[in-house]
Amino acid sequence: MFLNIQPLPNEHVFSWFVRGYFRSGSASFTNFQKQINLSAKKLYANQVFGSHFEAIFKLLGNRQKLISNHTTALLWQVSVGKLAMANSPALDSFEHMNEQQFFGYDTSWHACQSCIEEDIERFGTSYWHASHQYPSVFTCYKHLKPLVIAKEPVKNIYSELLPHNVAAWEYVVPEVKQELEDWQSYLKEVINLCHNNPELITQIKPQIVKYFNVSKLKSKEQKLYCERLNIEFEQAIGNQLLQYLFRDYGRENLRGKTNVFSILFFSQYKSNGVRNPIYWLVVAYWLKITKQLDVLS
Ligand SMILES: [Zn+2]
Question: How many domains does the chain have?
Answer without folding.
Answer: 1
